[in-house]
Design goal:
By secondary structure, this protein is of the alpha+beta class. The protein has one domain. It is 20% helix and 47% strand. It has a three-stranded antiparallel beta sheet, with helices on one face. The longest helix has 13 residues. The protein is elongated, with a radius of gyration of 14 Å. The two termini are 19 Å apart.
Length: 64
């Protein structure tokens, strides 16, 4: 299982400090770094926010 973790820059607060929001999306196991970049860029086109960072996270079960 993989997830795409996005950190969005949404603006600044009254003191001028940056404000961020986080979002995590489930993605197919076939998604690699280059596909994750395309997904992030595509999502960014349809929002009023900009992507500050994106991470592709892989989860694997550990059998004990």
């Amino acid at each position: 299982m993989k997830k795409l973790a996005l950190k969005w820059f949404v603006g600044t607060d009254v003191d001028g400090n940056p404000v961020y929001k986080r979002q995590t999306l489930n993605v197919e196991d076939t998604v690699d770094v280059s596909k994750a970049l395309v997904i992030s860029q595509t999502l960014e086109k349809y929002t009023n926010y900009s992507v500050d960072s994106a991470s592709l996270v892989t989860y694997e079960d550990v059998t004990i």
